[in-house]
Design goal:
By secondary structure, the chain is an alpha/beta fold. The protein is built from 40 helices and 16 strands.
Length: 928
């Protein structure tokens, strides 16, 4: 048999070419050829051929393709395509390939021989071997085969060998004095790899020998400029020495095809094929300046007595591999003895992570160790590898690591070696490693990436759409690259049109994909690893991840997370911290957690597909009850002004969460909790109101305590949102009490905006409902506020009548606090009618009752009103005294008055102070 993969896939038997029809069986043959003479597990073959979504009949399909390959090979007995069984089932297949049957094997072997001949000083023989190797290269490997992960990796490896063969052949020809013949190819190679110092040195030498000294010096200056601009470094010592020799017209360069042993070589050689396995560098790599700087500073210290290891961790799609590969290319010429690269498949969907022994086997095979001489034992293979590279400067990129155990045996031990590792989890226990965490892109970096992908003109023409794309992609590089790729392929699409496609959160993940590459698949790899783990904490973390999709919000506290999960705090912390370790969750502060927007959309998909509707509802109900219990606690510590009596209802089931609400012990704690959770409460209420009747009722109940926080802080927009939502939802549920509460909330918005007609309409509607359902507390609350609205409208007779009715209800209920408030409000309405003595009499009663029950805020209100009455009567000295006493209460340390209430007090005090020539310092600074 003869197999050709250096170009389109070809197969010869007995000197005749066998036609290969298209189909997945050709992909199967290609994968088996990539791992010729090695067992390829069936689960890996399934992932290679079908990705993460194999059909249900995949086993039968795979067996059918294996049979097809065997028929094509004429291998009815299974001698060439061997089945490896475990029990009664096939667990893998091995394609037996003899010496020289595969052109890729012959290609690599010829390159190895060429390098060895060059090291022996046989440049003519080396050129012949390398030329023979390059003659085998017909086109890109597997040119007509769809690229699976394994095939793509093999294409990358063979392409690196091809570049290496070209470099070696150029060096051989330079040693033979054929500098004119290599100039064109050298210039093309330098254009492809502008930062490779070895190639640049060869070009300088060829130009100098061709009598083009000025061009040789210009080539050096060009490289130096690129290195300074992109990396902030100078060329290495070998190239600097060559530059000096060209500058001084050193004639020995013309006479000596190879420098003497005591002089540094431009590219030192090892007695084997020098690995050049780095994947191609992405042309769309931008930004990451600070992270690149950290890595370069670390690499500059390489050689200081031990191997240098840099471990880059970060979430899926954040660009870890791109950064590592980009950095590796920038410094590759500092490692003349080779650059190893391997994708460890630690988080590759559908693929099993590579075993350390398998990786070491690949490394040793690359270094020329025959298959039969590679130890099966991991420790022995690691020792053999370290021995072979002990005196060499090696750069190694271990991409996509699963964990510390996978990478620990792999690094070389030489002090001049550098290892770059990428992993979704921080490899905290890896000895000697320096860790670099990679987050999402900053806005300017994300903009630059889109400019690189779709063109700066399109980005500049629609900055708002650009900002929206970056925001909806959450600055995630993978998402931005996929969106950019789609836009680049559709030049007729505007960025605004694509924003419309991303706006629907339900389908956003569907839009962020190109072919088989998607952020969803990237997320799946991390999530599936938790689901498939036998570890109980991993299983709990997977459940926690799903349930995060139940409720929207920006961040979540540990206590809220425990309520969502229905577990104790310690169990919730174990699960959530495991998600942080897996970079499926961030922890911006202690006991606080945050999920990336795209991950939350993915979590929402998983919870809908994996959790029963009843469990989703229970989880949402648990966190709503937790928020309700906490909000009810906090408002008990807030100083409520007279027009806002404290709520007296206790929400049903408010403390039935599996994790009890955290205890609030002070007003400061209450304010801090509400400040932190306000956005989460708003999001939870808005979402829950559209769900089941149970959760919708809880959402409406949660609007009530939240009002007592929003109103005093004059947050009218949020109050309006809550009021309108509560009214709409309550009407849908037929909940008349909650509808009345919503109308009360909405009236507060009108009060803050000074729209008293709207306030009056809301309160009259609420009042009718309170009377309908017989709620006397609600009735007197609406009567009190309605009297306020009527007074502001200067309808004082109506205000007096309404406030008098409120006082009757309060007396019947024995509510002394409401009576004190009512007397103050009644006095304001009576004063509006000009009945100043009657108003003063009401206020004096109010002051006495306020003192009796210890309500300083209500006493301050009444003192201010008496001061204004005295001012109207011309009793200036009395007015000054009352207003001073009121001001002291308003700004005193013992009383914290809310912004809206203090603002009202200030606006009333100010004209009085002017009339009495009292300075503003009497009242303290105006409210912010």
């Amino acid at each position: 048999m003869r197999y050709r993969v250096l170009g389109p896939l070809g197969l010869w038997r007995g000197g005749q070419q066998i036609p290969l029809a298209p189909g997945k069986w050709r992909m199967l043959l290609a994968v088996l050829l990539c791992d010729a003479n090695r067992v390829v597990p069936t689960d890996r073959l399934v992932a290679e051929l079908w990705g993460t979504r194999p059909p249900q009949s995949v086993s039968k399909l795979l067996q059918g393709y294996v049979s097809r390959v065997r028929r094509t090979l004429g291998d009815e007995t299974g001698r060439l395509l061997v089945t490896h069984v475990h029990g009664y089932r096939a667990h893998g297949y091995r394609l037996v390939v003899g010496p020289d049957e595969l052109d890729a094997h012959r290609f690599v072997e010829l390159i190895k021989q060429g390098g060895q001949e060059l090291d022996r000083g046989s440049a003519e023989t080396a050129a012949a071997r390398l030329g023979e190797a390059l003659d085998l290269w017909r086109d890109a490997p597997f040119a007509d085969v769809p690229l699976s992960p394994t095939v793509e990796a093999e294409v990358t490896r063979l392409a690196a060998c091809h570049t290496q063969a070209r470099e070696l052949l150029i060096e051989a020809r330079l040693r033979l004095g054929r500098h004119e013949a290599v100039l064109d190819e050298l210039e093309a190679l330098v254009a492809e790899h502008p930062l490779r110092e070895g190639l640049r040195g060869q070009l300088m030498l060829a130009l100098y020998r061709a009598g083009r000294q000025a061009d040789a010096l210009a080539a050096y200056r060009d490289l130096r400029h690129h290195l300074a601009e992109e990396l902030g470094i100078e060329p290495g010592p070998p190239l600097q020495e060559l530059h000096q020799r060209v500058l001084t017209a050193d004639t020995s360069l013309l006479l000596e095809p190879e420098p003497p042993a005591d002089r540094p070589k431009i590219a030192a050689r090892t007695p084997s094929v020098v690995p050049r396995e780095l994947p191609h560098i992405s042309t769309a790599f931008v930004g990451r300046t600070s992270e690149s700087s950290v890595l370069h500073k670390l690499l500059e210290r390489s050689g200081a007595g031990q191997v240098t290891i840099a471990a880059i961790d970060g979430a899926s799609g954040v660009g870890k591999s791109a950064l590592a590969i980009h950095t590796a290319h920038q410094v590759a010429d500092r490692f003349p003895d080779g650059q190893f690269y391997v994708d460890l498949h630690g988080s590759t969907a559908g693929l099993t992570p590579l075993e350390p022994a398998e990786v070491l086997g690949r490394f040793l095979n690359t270094l020329g160790v025959p298959e039969v001489a590679i130890p099966a034992n991991t420790d022995e293979a690691a020792a053999k590898f370290r021995s072979l590279v002990a005196d060499r400067r090696i750069l190694m990129v271990l991409d996509n690591a699963a964990g510390v155990d996978q990478v620990r045996p792999l690094p070389p031990a030489g002090p001049g070696c550098v290892v770059l590792i990428t992993s979704r989890e921080m490899l905290t226990t890896l000895e000697g490693a320096t860790h670099l965490h990679l987050g999402v892109m900053f806005h300017d970096q994300a903009t630059a990436l889109l400019e690189r992908l779709v063109g700066p003109e399109r980005v500049a023409s629609d900055p708002e759409a650009t900002d929206a794309i970056i925001r909806m992609c959450g600055g995630l590089p993978l998402a931005l690259r996929l969106v950019g790729a789609r836009l680049a392929a559709r030049p007729g699409w505007s960025l605004s049109a694509f924003v419309q496609r991303l706006t629907d959160a339900q389908s956003r993940l569907d839009e962020i994909r190109v072919g088989d590459v998607s952020v969803r698949a990237s997320f799946h790899a991390s999530y599936d690893a938790l689901c498939q783990s036998a570890n109980s904490v991993d299983q709990a973390a997977a459940r926690a991840f799903r349930l995060f999709g139940v409720v929207p919000g920006s961040t979540m506290s540990l206590s809220a997370g425990a309520a969502l999960l229905g577990v104790e705090n310690w169990a919730a912390e174990d699960a959530l911290e495991r998600l942080v370790d897996a970079h499926l969750l961030d922890s911006p502060a202690a006991s606080r957690y945050q999920m990336h927007d795209l991950l939350r959309l993915f979590a929402r998909e998983q919870v809908r597909s994996e959790e029963p509707a009843a469990e989703r509802e229970r989880a949402l109900e648990r966190i709503l009850r937790f928020y309700l219990a906490m909000a009810q606690q906090t408002v008990a510590f807030l100083d409520v002004p007279p027009r806002l009596p404290r709520p007296t209802d206790e929400p049903e089931g408010a403390t039935t969460s599996a994790c009890p609400a955290k205890t609030i012990t002070s007003r400061r704690e209450a304010e801090a909790w509400l400040d932190t959770e306000r956005a989460n409460l708003m999001a939870a209420i808005t979402h829950a109101a559209t769900q089941s009747d149970t959760t919708a009722r809880l959402a409406v109940r949660l609007t009530r305590p939240l009002q007592w926080y929003l109103y005093p802080h004059a947050r009218a927009r949020e109050l309006r949102t809550l009021g309108e939502l509560a009214i709409h939802t309550a009407r849908r549920l037929g909940d008349r009490e909650s509808e009345a509460w919503g109308l009360d909330n909405l009236s507060a918005v009108y009060w803050l905006h000074g729209e008293y007609d709207g306030m009056r309409q809301c309160l009259e509607a609420a009042l009718a409902i309170w009377r309908e359902i017989g709620d006397r507390d609600g009735e007197q609350r609406s009567l009190f506020n309605l009297a306020d609205a009527l007074a502001e409208l200067e309808l004082y007779e109506e205000a007096v009548a309404v406030q008098s009715r409120q006082l009757e209800v309060a007396r019947e209920a024995g509510d002394r606090l409401a009576q004190v408030s009512g007397l103050g409000n009644l006095a304001r309405a009576i004063r509006g009618l000009g009945r100043l003595e009657d108003a003063r009499s009401c206020l004096e009663k109010s002051i006495q009752h306020a003192r009796d029950i210890g309500e300083e805020a209500l006493e301050s209100f009444a003192l201010r009103e008496i001061g204004l009455v005295c001012l109207d009567q011309g009793r200036i000295s009395e007015a000054r005294e009352y207003l001073r006493r009121a001001a002291a209460a308003v700004v005193g340390e013992s009383l914290t008055v809310y912004v809206s209430w203090r603002g009202h007090a200030w606006s009333a005090f100010f004209p009085a102070c002017l009339s009495l020539r009292m300075g503003p310092e009497a009242l303290g600074p105006p409210p912010v």
